[in-house]
Amino acid sequence: MAIKKNELYSSLWESCDKLRGGMDASQYKDYILTLLFVKYVTDKFKGQKYADINVPAGGSFDDLVALKNNKDIGEKMDKAIAKLAEANNLTGVIDNAKFFDNSKFGNGKDMVDTLTGLVSIFERPEFNFSNNKAGGDDILGDAYA
After folding, report:
1. Mean pLDDT across the stretch 22-42?
2. I need a surface site. Which of 58, 110, 136, 138 has the fewest CB within 10 A?
3. CB of 94 within 8 A of CB of 82?
4. Reported pTM
5. Which residues contact 25 (CB under 8 A, 6 or more apart)?
6. Residue 80 pLDDT > 90, yes or no?
7. DSSP code string of 1-30
8. Domains (ranges, CATH) in the chain?
9. For the packed helices 73-87 and 108-123, what is the interaxial angle rounded to 10 degrees?
């Protein structure tokens, strides 16, 4: 089943709403696109032997889901994304958004709730990219634009 752009855009807006107040709106894309990328490559390439992207143990979207409601979610998300970056020579490219940042996500429960909410948005079944096709569209490129 093709993923619907309006569903993707709706979730992207919802993600922006989760970030509202903690940072400048111009920074939303850094966090949202990082999560979208990790979700996409996990769904498309995790477990494939000769994949274009190596999704290492501890560096997948599934690992981010496992961190939901964890008191150290921000720090551990940064580590998981760093593992994915290192495994694919993308250090400094996909790991620039720092999720362990009290100035952007608050402290304690505020950070846990915000980051858990963000991960939950991209965890929805309609955003399973493993079998979805966008009818030839560049859905990630469109999301970035």
Report:
1. 86
2. 136
3. no
4. 0.84
5. 16
6. yes
7. -PPPHHHHHHHHHHHHHHHBTTB-GGGHHH
8. 5-144 (1.20.1260)
9. 50
